[in-house]
């Protein structure tokens, strides 16, 4: 299960890279009348479920967790939920790349933490290091670092046009 779990842990990153770099192909694939952000959210949640199943298969759980778990996981999830609260589904799932007008957000954690959703996800993963073998956390974290790099370079000329 180890190799299969590693594949599933990294599954989202080629998908995110493709959608970020080729947003028009994603919009076209979604088809007329379908919101590409909603479809992306659905696919992303499905992949996330597969990732958690894969990690569960290679993890060993003990209770209670170490004391560092609570602040790392709590703050990481706070960042994730706050980003989603401020950006909404369209802002979180590449709406700007699909030609949507997403307002610029400056409220916390934006302006204080660069890439707060990815940082929150990394903190949440690190919190689980006592349960999940380190190589899976490292692999997943490297994927987030890759996405931080990929998403830091946006060419507005490659933005998609929504299908009418």
Overview of this protein structure:
- GO terms for molecular function: phosphatidyl-N-methylethanolamine N-methyltransferase activity.
- This protein has helices spanning 2-10, 12-21, 23-30, 36-58, 69-92, 116-127, 134-151.
- The protein has one domain.
- The radius of gyration is 17 Å and the shape is globular.
- Helix 2 (12-21) runs parallel beside helix 7.
- It is built from 7 helices and no strands.
- With 164 residues, the chain is an all-alpha fold.
- The model has no long low-confidence stretch (mean pLDDT 93).
Question: Which terms would index this structure?
Answer:
63% helix, 7 helices, 164 residues
Rounded mean pLDDT score: 93
Q: Indicate the proportion of strand residues.
A: under 5%
| Overall 3D form | globular
The structural domain count equals 1
In helices, the fraction of residues equals 55-70%
Q: How would a textbook summarize the main sheet? A: none
Q: Nearest-angstrom radius of gyration? A: 17 Å
Number of strands: 0
Number of helices: 7
Order of helices and strands: HHHHHHH
- How many angstroms separate the termini? 44 Å
Which parts are unreliable, with pLDDT below 50 for 5 consecutive residues or more? Answer: none
Which structural class do the helices and strands define?
Answer: mainly alpha
């Amino acid at each position: 299960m180890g190799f299969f779990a590693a594949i599933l842990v990294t599954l989202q990153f080629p998908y995110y890279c493709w959608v970020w770099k080729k947003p028009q192909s994603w919009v076209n694939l979604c088809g007329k009348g379908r919101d590409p952000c909603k479809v992306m959210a659905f696919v992303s949640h499905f992949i996330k479920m597969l990732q958690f199943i894969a990690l569960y298969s290679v993890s060993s759980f003990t209770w209670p967790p170490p004391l560092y778990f609570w602040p790392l996981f709590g703050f990481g999830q706070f960042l994730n939920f706050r980003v989603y609260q401020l950006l909404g589904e369209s802002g979180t799932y590449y709406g700007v790349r699909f030609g949507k007008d997403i307002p610029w957000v400056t409220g916390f954690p934006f302006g204080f933490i660069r890439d707060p959703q990815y940082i929150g996800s990394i903190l949440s993963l690190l919190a689980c290091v006592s349960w999940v073998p380190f190589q899976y956390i490292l692999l997943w974290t490297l994927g987030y670092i890759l996405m931080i790099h990929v998403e830091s370079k946006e060419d507005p000329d490659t933005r998609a046009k929504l299908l009418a």
